[in-house]
Amino acid sequence: MDIRAEEISRIIRSQIEGFDAQVDVAEVGTVISVGDGIARAYGLEKAMAGELLEFSGKGDSVMGLAFNLEEDNVGIIILGSSNSIKEGDTVKRTGKIMSVPVGPQFVGRVVNALGMPIDGKGPIAAAAFNPIERIAPGIVDRKSVHEPMQTGLKSIDSLIPVGRGQRELIIGDRQTGKTAVAVDTIINQRETGVICIYVAIGQKASTVAQVVKTLEANDAMKHTIIVSATASDPAPMLFLAPMTGAALGEYFMHHGKDGQPASKDNAGGHVLCVYDDLSKQAAAYREISLLVRRPPGREAYPGDVFYLHSRLLERACKLSDERGAGSLTALPVIETQAGDVSAYIPTNVISITDGQIFLESDLFNAGVRPAVNVGISVSRVGGSAQIKAMKSVAGTIKLDLAQYRELAAFAQFGSDLDKATQAQLNRGARLVEILKQGQYQPMPVEKQVVSIWAATNGYVDDVPVAKVRAFESEMIAYLDVNAPELLRGIKESKTLSDDAKAQLKTQVAAFKESFVASLSAPAGA
Fold first, then answer.
1. What are the pLDDT digits (tens) for 143-153?
2. Can you name the residues that pair with 170 across neighbouring β-strands?
3. Is residue 73 a contact partner of residue 32, using CB atoms and an 8 Å limit?
4. R_g of the chain, CA atoms, integer Å
5. First to last CA, the chain
6. Out of 142, 190, 380, 405, which one is annotated catalytic?
7. What is the pLDDT of residues 465-498, one digit of tens each?
């Protein structure tokens, strides 16, 4: 074979021309131990807290989160399977603080704690990436809470109202209807334009599927995003899920309907974020912290578990007009053990939030549902989060119920009671009935106002207790047919004018007459 010198020089020249002398500089470390979803790496001196790191083992690259920055090593939470990572593997800095994809395309979808779709409906186009941790807006960027976030539940909207931008804790033992209160509130936002985010933390996958099914059945999935970190997911996912929910919510709060940043001329969105429940996030955080050898404190939780929840819930706010007047309302859920609200995590979250809705097992088992204990439930925003009509009719109801509970305790002893006491007991028993409500049946505020007005003005005092709920539903149906303009007027003006009261008196008295007649009529007549 004949090799010519010019041919060799041409080949060498073409190879030299294509040579690109770029140096890939990356800060890498070495894995020194791995196990239980945690890796320790040596050599990442400049790694930042919360930075995303990349493991380059065999197979697909796995991402990690810099969790513990120590003098000679970094504790890393592995986001995914740790099976492919082994001692001696390299881990590389990405230079990015961990962020999740966000955007309007997420509405109606189910995603995991990393913002990846898990509902089998294909990929989601992200409009942006938001960091999972963000410093909450300062006081100058905020405005006081003044708009109602209607839950559709009479006992909450009348007694412990929630406002847009508030943080209201839902607390109670297991199986007392905590999730039901949150789901009812989501269903009630159907026509309000509020985007709802339901973060399921540490629940069974079947339970989350049931919530999705309920929301779909009530046409509420079209304004809802579900972030799911189920009990079978690793602890890091349970830890990250609430922050992913907050990051998704912040996108809508800081952007207008056109996708442009919110401003005085471009109103930001309103968001409701339910964290169900933060007890499981705290347990997952404890697990991770103990694995990276952080010192345990009270109940073995790390000392900064309060800070974990406070910086999450502080992100809920009502923004000022200059910032677009958007809002993020947080409904964290906490599970108590045998009604013990003085345990570590419950007291932490009670002190962070702007009030709590306390659900009681005894009330639940007695058939009072929602099982709200009005005595120790409170909203620290109060009347600012109510429409004027509701404020005017619900003023006396809390006092009436408190007096009823006190008198009911005495009445158990069977002593003779005077007429005034008997009347108070009768009124209280009927108020308790009026505040009962079926599951997934949120009530529009104008109908709540009418219902509570009738109860506090004595229209149900002589109706048998067993018939109070029938009286209420038939009265609402009667008004829907005979006085729709009255209900519409309350809804639009948000007040209960003297004219409306006079009309209500006439209509409710006429209905009551026919209702009482139907009660006294013999069966089958």
1. 999 999 999 99
2. 333, 357
3. yes
4. 29
5. 117
6. 380
7. 999 999 999 999 999 999 999 999 999 999 999 9
What does DSSP say about strands 224-229 and 110-111: parallel, antiparallel, or unpaired?
parallel
Distance between CA 116 and CA 360 in Å, rounded? 36
Q: What contacts 110, CB < 8 A, 6 or more positions away? A: 117, 118, 119, 208, 212, 226, 228
* Of 89, 94, 126, nearest in space to 107 by CA: 126
DSSP state, residue 263? B
Measured distance CA(404)–CA(334) in Å, rounded: 28
Cβ proximity of 341 and 282 under 8 Å: no
Helices 278-291 & 235-254, crossing angle to 10 degrees? 130
Give residues with Cβ within 8 angstroms of 484, minimum separation 6: none
Contact 146, 270 (CB under 8 A): no
The dihedral over CA atoms of 473, 476, 477, 481, expressed in degrees to the nearest 10, equals 170
Both structure tokens of 102? 């966000």
Residue pair 445/148 in contact (Cβ under 8 Å)? The answer is: yes
Separation between Cα atoms, residue 60 and residue 164, nearest integer Å = 43
d(CA 316, CA 353): 10
Place of tokens 């009445």: 411
- What are residue 131's DSSP bridge partners? 99
Q: Output the DSSP codes for 403-417.
A: HHHHHHHHHTT----
Percent of the chain surpassing pLDDT 90:
83
CA 356, 237, 346 angle in degrees (round to 5)? 20
Q: Quote the tokens at residue 70.
A: 């120590």
**Cα gap 141→327, rounded to integer Å:** 11
- For residue 217, the number of C-alpha atoms closer than 13 Å in the C-beta half-sphere is 10
Q: Which two three-digit tokens encode residue 79? A: 């986001």
- pTM of the model as a whole: 0.92
Go through 506-521 and write b for each residue having 16 or more CB atoms within 10 A of its CB, e for each that does not: ebbeebbeebeeeeee
- In this structure, what token pair is assigned to residue 525? 């007549």
What does the pLDDT look like over 64-104, one tens digit per residue? 999 999 999 999 999 988 888 999 999 999 999 999 999 99
The H-assigned helical ranges of 370-463 are 388-394, 397-411, 419-434, 445-456
Long-range contacts of 206-213 (CB under 8 A, 24+ apart): 208/110, 211/179, 211/183, 212/110
How does DSSP assign 150-204, residue by residue? --S-HHHHHHS--BTT-B-EEEE-TTSSHHHHHHHHHHTTTTTT-EEEEEEES--
Give the integer Cα–Cα distance in Å for 408 and 411.
5
Give CA–CA dist 271/356, Å, rounded. Answer: 19
pLDDT confidence of residue 16: 76
- The answer to whether 427 is a known catalytic residue is no
- Among 296, 224, 202, 244, smallest CA distance to 114 is for 244
- What tokens were used for 393? 């009719």
